[in-house]
Amino acid sequence: MSTGPILVWGAGAIGGTIGAYLRRAGQEVVFVDIDGDHVAAINEQGLAVEGPIDNFSVTGRAFTPATLTGRFDRILLCVKAHHTTAAVAAAGGASGAGRLCRVFAERAERVHHRGRDRTRADDWRLRQFRCRLF
């Protein structure tokens, strides 16, 4: 299994929360977001999770797609469904040899495919990104 950092592409409500829980569990996480101000805030102040289940803060490294360098074997794509196509195209340049990824798309449309339900984002990922599931 890969031991490098997990790349969380999309550091909003879904990606920020998943990445923060992974950081709290001791995983190395790198965040990517298109909002430069949000990236700067993560780098300067970290991420805070506040909600009915838990409240905590974590530190993290964040980049915009244009400033990200390196290859990542584990990628979590955490964008709104209508941003999936552009995010997959951009994240493809960061995928390493292992290319383990999972799509967490907000408002993704459910479809039935080959005997099980998937999101359209999953189908796109499987065709274009050729990832193995976690």
From the structure above, extract its key features.
134 residues, alpha/beta, two-stranded antiparallel ribbon, 4 helices, 9 strands, 31% strand, disordered C terminus
Quick structural overview:
The protein has 134 residues and is α/β, with parallel strands linked by helices.
Number of helices: 4
Q: Are there runs of 5+ residues with pLDDT below 50, and where?
A: 106-134
State the helical fraction.
Answer: 25-40%
Order of helices and strands: EHEHEEEEHEEEH
Major sheet details: 5 strands, parallel
Would you spell out the secondary-structure blueprint of this structure?
Elements: E1 6-9, H1 13-24, E2 29-32, H2 36-45, E3 47-50, E4 55-58, E5 61-63, E6 72-77, H3 84-91, E7 95-103, E8 110-113, E9 116-119, H4 120-128
Explain what this protein looks like in three dimensions:
- This protein has 134 residues and is an alpha/beta fold.
- It contains four helices and nine strands.
- It has helices at 13-24, 36-45, 84-91, 120-128, and strands at residues 6-9, 29-32, 47-50, 55-58, 61-63, 72-77, 95-103, 110-113, 116-119.
- It has a five-stranded parallel β-sheet with strand order 5-2-1-6-7, with helices on both faces.
- The longest helix has 12 residues, at 13-24.
- It is globular.
- Mean pLDDT is 76; it is low at 106-134.
